[in-house]
Amino acid sequence: MPSKTIRTGIIGCGGISRYHVRNMFKDKHTEIVALCDPFLPSIKNLAKEFKVARRKVPPSESDVQKFLETFEMDAVLIASPHAMHHDHTIAAMETGLDVLLEKPMVVNTKEALSLIATRDRTGRKLVIAFQGSLSPLIRLASDGIKKGLYGELLSASATVWQNWGPNTSGTWRQKPELSGGGFIFDTGAHMLNTVADLVNQDFLEVAAWMDNYGRPVEILSVAIAKLESGAFVTLHGCGETIPSCSSVIKVFCKEAILTTGAWGRSLQIQKAGDKEGKDIPFPPAANVWDTFLKVRTNQITNPSPPEIGLRMIRLYDAICLSASENGRIVKIKK
Q1: Residue 285's pLDDT band (boundaries 50, 70, 90)?
Q2: Per residue in 212-261, pLDDT tens?
Q3: Which alpha helices (DSSP H) does 169-287 contain, by range?
Q4: Which of 1, 112, 152, 155 has its CA 20 to 30 A from that of 78?
Q5: Pairing relationship of beta strands 220-227 and 6-11 according to DSSP bridges
Q6: Total domain count for the chain?
């Protein structure tokens, strides 16, 4: 990395920010200069990470616009509630900052297009923190499918599950005006994004059903989709099961079956004649923050650009529309 210090701010100081801060501490050129969150307990909890690492707790500001105007920064991590992602990211890029944006990128297609247009106009870097797209194994699988290394893509099947309902009860994640959706849009967003990345083509038609299971947002969901190539995709989310959090994604091609998960932590490839899938070793990989820094300095091509987020949110919009009309087939328009 270059010797220049990366002056970094954080908007949204909840649990996921603690994960990112620990990785930022590992980079000697990253300096966290300010925190922003209207909820004081979140800032206090994040401050504990600095104290444990024996670092000075940076100053904080509750108002995003004042935060952007007050502190000299080069980049910002945005980890605020989902419905705030669009406005916070637009404001940061307009201020001249590069952005690492937590998932899901935005809550609808219109916002996704707005982010892309602002990125193009401002020339800022925008990386979406989807572990799947940032995983070297998902990159390997996606590139191989695109190049036809496994033969024709026939179908894909994906499931994600978690005891999400009980875990997030009473939090902003179950308030639609802040979360933008339920389980399939929170933890399940990883699955939707990774599937969209793996198949690497647009979805044309979707039929879906959802059930809130007595909660304010969707907890159970299932969708059937058709890709532009004619291949089929099934998507299943269960957010009200035993204590757990996992995912399985299978991609069926003419000459191989690929098995992975929403976060891209493993990959198996089974070809004709193989009794079972062969594990592909996980290559040495940078963490999310390191990858963002490499994108900032043009050392690598952005592996998780907003264009992937656009494909995912178009799929999600269609899932919601179909489910609201009891499974009516929805055609997705570009």
Answers
A1: low
A2: 999 999 999 999 999 999 999 999 999 999 999 999 999 999 999 999 99
A3: 176-179, 187-199
A4: 1
A5: unpaired
A6: 2
